[in-house]
Design a protein that fits this description.
The chain is mostly helical. It has seven helices and no strands.
């Protein structure tokens, strides 16, 4: 998870800054779960505990605190989680297009160049039937 790699403090601070500067839109509200993990001392890869646990654990081992602190009543299946994440990113991309930040094709291309995505969020959402 991205937050584990950059550090939970940094990720939460950046999320909070964006939330404030963009007028506190509900869709960009900083993660309550991330704040709870930080309060429990989870800092990401920096101390081997974030959304995942590192060290001698198998890759992708979820931190047990995530389930304990999560507001979600049940874990999502991988496909469901993927669709939810693509839908959220695609919604932000649509907002950027609507606000005139860039045309859809350029936003999709930027995800390939900047984030290494094989297709952009708008193309991916369309392919998944989320458009």
């Amino acid at each position: 998870m991205h937050a584990d790699h950059v550090g939970l403090e940094e990720d939460l601070a950046l999320s909070g800054e964006l939330y404030e500067r963009l007028g506190r839109p509900d869709r960009l509200r900083p993660s309550a779960l991330e704040a709870k993990l930080l309060a429990r001392g989870c800092r990401g890869r920096r101390n081997s505990r974030g959304f995942y646990v590192y060290g001698e654990n198998p890759r992708g081992t979820e931190n047990p605190l995530v389930s304990e602190l999560s507001a979600s009543p049940r874990p999502m299946a991988l496909g469901e989680a993927l669709r939810a994440m693509v839908a959220a990113v695609a919604e932000e991309a649509r907002c950027a297009v609507d606000e005139g930040v860039a045309p859809a094709a350029e936003i999709d291309r930027a995800f390939g160049l900047g984030a290494g995505w094989t297709r952009g969020p708008l193309s991916w959402a369309k392919e998944l039937g989320l458009a």
